[in-house]
Amino acid sequence: MHTELVSVGPDAPDEAAITRAAAVLRRGGLVAFATETVYGLGGLALDRGAVARIFAAKGRPATNPIIVHVADIAMARELVAEWPAAAQQLAQRFWPGPLTLVLPRRDVVPDAVTAGGSTVAVRVPSHEVALALVRAVRAPIAAPSANRSQRLSPTTAQHVLKQLAGRIEMVLDAGPTTGGLESTVLDLSQESPMLLRPGLVPLCEIEALLGEPVLLGPRLRDGEVARSPGQHQRHYAPSVPLTLCQGQSHEFVERKCETEPLVGWLALGSAASINRPNVRTIMMPDDPVEYASLLYATLHDLEEAGATSIVADAPPDLPAWQAVHDRLRRAAAGESAAR
Q: In this structure, is residue 33 part of a structural domain?
């Protein structure tokens, strides 16, 4: 299969390009497109065949549900059996935007979208390309990140093509995404709200709006059925081992350089330089929002450069860094943390 690359403006997407992409979706095809978080791989959410193709293209396990992108609150309510007051509050405050709400599903939602569960995850994206596409098809779009399962999420069209070329029909290239990490996922299907995945909407803002504490959801083992994407222990990982370093990273990287052809180092703070040809040091921002926007792109760049191992300095243990910590821990799952 040939994967067509179509350029669109991120702020004022070309109507003809959106119309072509919508036509691909209506006939059961798959289109990757930019959101404010990462690039998503879209198929019509109520088309069982299209949803099956998403899973096949990604190599995604059936236990991992898919977030459904909708145009507005009205479209979201067509998919859910209940719409509590908290959902209305959060949607009015954070939609369009990077907040996903998990709610009891209606029967119209295919089982594959929900991993056979009783809930569905929905959100209204704020990226103009994503919104234009949902509005053009006039139907909800199932859209997990446009990458192979458990691999790094894509923040550019080139990242998508690296993993999915020949597996999907089209990529709408709107340039780099701005957020860099996936949406926050909040489960409202139970008595108390529960955070299933930290993301670009900070937990403190959600708790302030709701006026109550939010529970933290469990991490799942491989094979367990999830209520939302991003709950499994290993996820969002580069193709080479990543070690999360809790301290003394300079010495640890030095030791790595003795055995590794090329070590990538995501350094924070006043890291001392290492004068070795086989280490590539990337000074990461000390602001959590800026760090999040660059994390995946930096890891993709290190992969492209041929890094055989990556070391990341652990960010500060502060609430503002929660989403970054989460992604680094999942990327490093299975590797021994350095201290």
A: yes
Do 277 and 188 share a structural domain?
Answer: no
If you ran DSSP here, which 8-state letter would residue 7 be given?
A: E
pLDDT at 233: 59
* 3-class DSSP assignment, residue 314: coil
- Please name the residues in contact with 163: beta carbons below 8 A apart, sequence gap of 6 or more: 146, 147, 148, 151, 154
Q: Give the β-pairing of 119-123 and 99-104.
A: antiparallel
Residues spanned by the domain of 270? 242-331
What was the pLDDT predicted at 339?
A: 45
Q: What is the largest CA-CA distance in the chain?
A: 60
3-state secondary structure of 328: helix
CA distances from 84 to 77, 80, 90, 211, 333 (A): 11, 10, 10, 15, 36
Query: Domain count of the chain?
Result: 2
Q: State the pLDDT at residue 336.
A: 47
Query: Domain containing 271 — which CATH number?
Result: 3.40.50.11030
Which of 194, 182, 183 is closest to 86 using CA atoms? 194
**162 to 152, 171, 204, 304, 335: CA distances (angstroms):** 11, 12, 36, 10, 25
Averaged pLDDT, groups of 10, the chain, 339 residues long: 96 96 98 98 98 96 94 98 98 98 97 95 98 98 95 96 97 97 96 95 97 87 61 74 88 92 91 84 95 97 96 94 94 63
C-alpha to C-alpha distance for 74 and 66, rounded to whole angstroms: 20
Spatial distance between the Cα atoms of 321 and 34, rounded to a whole number of angstroms: 24
Q: What pLDDT does 16 receive?
A: 96
CA proximity to 256, closest of 320, 307, 290, 190: 307
268 and 139, same structural domain?
no
For residue 139, is it within any domain? yes
Verify that 105 and 169 share a domain, yes or no.
yes
Any idea which residue has 């998503």 for tokens?
40
Q: Is 180 left (phi over 0), alpha (psi -120 to 50) or beta?
A: left
